Amino acid sequence: MSLVEWIKLPALGDERGSLVVAESNINVPFAIERIYYIFNTQKDTPRGFHAHYDLKQVAICLSGSCRIVLDDGQRKDEVWLDSPTKGLVIDTRVWHEMHEFSEDCILLVLASAHYSEADYIRDYDKFLEVVNG
Ligand code: TYD
Fold it and tell me: pLDDT tens, 53-84?
């Protein structure tokens, strides 16, 4: 099964422009406790390279584009985030990498918990041990 799961973020548009809504436990599959956003990135400087024990996240590219790699220790999927109406679910225990940021990329992330460094798995071999035993 694919690791790529999208949430519905339809644009409520009229002649004034577009509006997108993200709501806890409605179209976002958890209660949002934190948001952060990434910008001023560089095309050749990837980010991420970690998984989380408990954190669930949704990533939305508000502007520009980037390529996301998802890996659960058994399979890898790769997807482009290139629209403010596409929300990608990053589940617990999924290794994720962000590559090829466009110059104008603004990546918004909705997260299910406050920041905790203890929740990170930053070493890939450790990640494989955690998910595959
Ligand atoms: P990190 O998660 O390593 O970023 P990325 O995976 O996008 O490369 O975070 C970068 C730095 O920011 C790191 O020092 C931790 C800090 N940070 C916080 O303090 N709070 C947060 O909510 C996040 C996401 C990061």
Answer: 999 999 999 999 999 999 999 999 999 999 99
CATH superfamily placement of domain 5-132:
Jelly Rolls (2.60.120.10)
Neighbours of 101 (CB within 10 A): 24
- Residue with the smallest CA separation from ligand 1 atom 6 is 48
36 CB within 6 A, ligand 1: yes
Q: Which atom of ligand 1 is nearest to the CA of 34?
A: 22
Cα-Cα-Cα-Cα dihedral sign, residues 110, 94, 7, 17: positive
Whether the CB-CB separation of 51 and 94 falls below 8 Å is answered with yes
Q: How far is the CA of 61 from the centre of ligand 1 (A)?
A: 17
Using the structure block, give the residue that is written with the tokens 């002649």.
15
- Residues tagged active-site: 50
- Segment 85-96, tens digit of pLDDT: 999 999 999 999
